[in-house]
Amino acid sequence: MTPNTATSAPSAPSRRSFLASTAVAAAAVAGGMPLLAACGGSDSGSGGGTSAGKSAKKLLPAYVATNVVTPDIAAKNGSAVGFTSKLDIASLKTSVPKKLGKGGKVSIMSPFWGSPPKSDNAYYKAMNDLIGVDVEWQNQDGNTYDQKLGAVLASSDIPDVVVIPGWNMGGKIPSAIIGKFADLGPYLSGDAIKQYPNLAAIPTDAWQRSLFGGKLRGLPQPSPYVTGIVPLYRKDIFDKEGYQVPTSADEFMALCKEITNAKAKRWACLDMKWTAFQSFGVLSGSEKPLGWNLVDGKLVYRIETQEYLEALEWTRKLFAAGYVHPDAKLGKSAATDPGPKFAAGEFLIYAQNISQWWSRTAEQATQNPDYKIWGMDIFGHDGGSPTLWAEQPAGIFAFVSKKASESVIRDVLAVANVTAAPYGTKEYMLTNYGVEGTHYTVKNGVPTKTDQGNNEVINAYVMVASPTATIAHPDFPEVAKAQVEWQQRMGAFTKKSSFYGMQITEPSRYTNLSNDFEQLEDDIVRGRKKISDMQQAVSDWKSKGGDQLRDWYKKLLDENGPAAS
């Protein structure tokens, strides 16, 4: 599993912090584990399949860009849109001029991190009144959600709506999605979506990821396709010490040598494996389909490439030279919660989700005013331009029960049309911040949640559907600007693999074939195993089913064609 994105998913922030950050990082949630869908009547969850193909295009909703709000920075090269202006509550736009809900009840089961608020809280009441639907939340512990999900989907008593993150789509969940959730195509495909303008403004790529079993079943949370993992660094210390941001793998190694002084309790970095994968151009590993690509007419998997081995060897050298903080070598606190020791200057560089650019800035703003975290541009290992690979454009979905009546489905879509409202609208502020004066206050254009807001406005309506990927930090607009511009620069070097945007179900006999590689990667870079152990593992993978799996993927490409680049 790769690091999670909050404009992008987990080595990773916790899912709780990942989701809690979306209200402020404004929206873009991304991919987890392989998402599964069969396309066509003969395929099943066990047999495998894809959501792509010529027939898929007619299932997709029409795209109608929103003109309600104009972002300060437009999307470019797969980036999020950005907002850098101060927030003016008086000038917020209205994107849902009339209630689309008909007053019915809708039950929604969703993962929740923390303590759920009481069902009659002020936030839920305000949202339900705006939408015109009585939403009843069945919040479940996000840390054990897969267990609850399996039990509920195996029963006959399914809530009207079930939210399923990609990382929870293992085991029998794919077949349950296809068997138990409604086809939303009659309500959303083609021009039908235009009665829900905020949903119509969701990018087409995200809707393609919502095709399961040859039907449009999911309501998506879109995310940028640019990688969400950034080499973050202490710019304040770099500036003070005169360190230069590296532009090649050799320069990075030399910089680490310059920074590291173990006696003074300063190391250069944490585990930089993900930056190495990026720098050496290794195919994306956040989801299995993206690890495959057609190269010179042959389908190859990421672990088979020379770039993969070179990235592991370079990372191993960082560890072997003593440049990596000891906690990362042992898998301890700095590796899981880098904030405190990064703030203390025990290490100056680490690779993590782009959301931490803002969250680390915010948490240090008052206690350490000189502190400045920034993002390095990803360098090509040889000093040239990098070759980066696109992430999937959506990774969390809401599904409607197949037993739901048309009136319930319409009410669910009314909910989604509000929660997908863009930043800068009244609906967005209510969805993400709650009621002004009750859940947040605004001072100098910066909204700040009250204690009641922090307790009530979390993990709920934002899980139903989201607007196009957005970055907005009214408290630190310079960070929002830098994040979007970083995505745009990196997006210029980003390619889409042959399976970009597709929903893939691998046949069940291959599901666990690649499970041990991440642990082996970590053992190799820490010196516990050798590169030759990886070469042997790849050879074993081929003989145990990897070559047959290649043939299976090749057949999918032959039948459906590669993703559009």
UniProtKB/TrEMBL annotation:
Supply the alphabetized keyword list. Answer: Coiled coil, Signal, Transport
PROSITE patterns with a match to the protein in the record: TAT
User: What does the record list as coiled-coil region(s)?
Assistant: 510-537
Domain of life per record: Bacteria
Q: Which SUPFAM superfamilies match?
A: Periplasmic binding protein-like II
State one Pfam family annotation. Answer: SBP_bac_8
> Is Transport a UniProt keyword of this protein?
yes
UniProt-listed InterPro entries: Bact_solute-bd_prot1 (IPR050490), SBP (IPR006059), TAT_signal (IPR006311)
Secretion signal, residue range per the UniProt entry? 1-37
Q: Where is this chain's protein located in or outside the cell?
A: Cell envelope
The entry's family comment says: Belongs to the bacterial solute-binding protein 1 family.
What protein name does the entry list? Answer: Extracellular solute-binding protein
